[in-house]
Amino acid sequence: MINPINRTIDNWRITINDNGITGRNHININKNKLNHLKNDRTCKIVGCTNLIRINRTSGLCDNHQLHEHDLCLELHNPAGNLVNAPAHKDIVDALIEWSSSRNFGLLPFFSNLSFNTLGNVPDVSTLAGKVTHIGITLPTLDIAYDSLIQVINNFFPINNNSSFQPLVTSKGEIPAIVLAYTFAGLLICEEANRGDRWFCRMVIKEESKTTQLGAAMPIAYFAARIFPWGVEMNKSARNLTL
Ligand SMILES: [Zn+2]
Fold it and tell me: Is residue 7 included in any domain, yes or no?
């Protein structure tokens, strides 16, 4: 299993856990082409010796089509109770409303989150050691999350009261900075569960081969909300992303 990571902010705790096979384990969901060279007949899962057709680019035998790992975010309130974390759309909505009242543009914040997430988080099979890539050093989840926390600290200064303003969400009132931490954690989960950018950038060394959105999907909702459509789009923008 992938080691869980915890971060606390304003007495709220954000945890990223590996739900293993009890998570949403879809067929080769990040579409990594582990046998992209089409030069190997052995399943790429560590310890598996099953043979595959040489042109099966996934590199996975029939027994290993399903991912065995799924990162999931948990949020505990200051009382220590597990609460339902708001979905990324609720967080984006709350932050946009918070920022517009203080004329504080969020675009640089989300751009920085994007730059620091996309392609910087390996897929769950790699993070769990189920597949290995010779000669490539893995960034840990801690490093990935802390780089996003640095971005958050720049835009939500710890010494500014407004960073801690409670914002209304469908899951109750949650401080703005806690919502930012939660959103960043959701980005890490999406990129690891569904992204192939790290694999394409670091292993294939051709980022343009990337086919999956990963963490770009939650960020796309923010992009849809702030695009100058010329018409009222607030609620219908929710239909633009999964
Ligand atoms: Zn196998």
Answer: no
User: Is 92 contained in some domain?
Assistant: yes
pLDDT at residue 209 is higher than 80: yes
Q: How far is the CA of 129 from the centre of ligand 1 (A)?
A: 14
Output the CA 136–ligand 1 centroid distance in Å: 22
β-strand 172-175 against 166-169: which pairing, if any? antiparallel
Helix, strand, coil percent values for the chain (each to nearest 5): 40, 15, 45
Evaluate whether residue 123 is within a structural domain. yes
Residue 49 alpha carbon to ligand 1 centre in Å: 7
Rounded to whole angstroms, the Cα distance separating 114 from 148 reads 9
Split at pLDDT 50, 70, 90, the class of 48 is: very high
The number of domains in the chain is: 1
- Residue 45 domain-assigned (yes or no): no
Distance (Å) from CA 63 to ligand 1 centroid: 5
Q: The domain containing residue 104 runs over which residues?
A: 84-240
* Ligand 1 center to 79 CA (angstroms): 44
What is residue 199's three-state secondary structure?
helix
Query: Considering the entire predicted model, what is its pTM?
Result: 0.94
Task: Judge whether residue 89 has pLDDT over 70.
Answer: yes
Output the CA 61–ligand 1 centroid distance in Å.
4
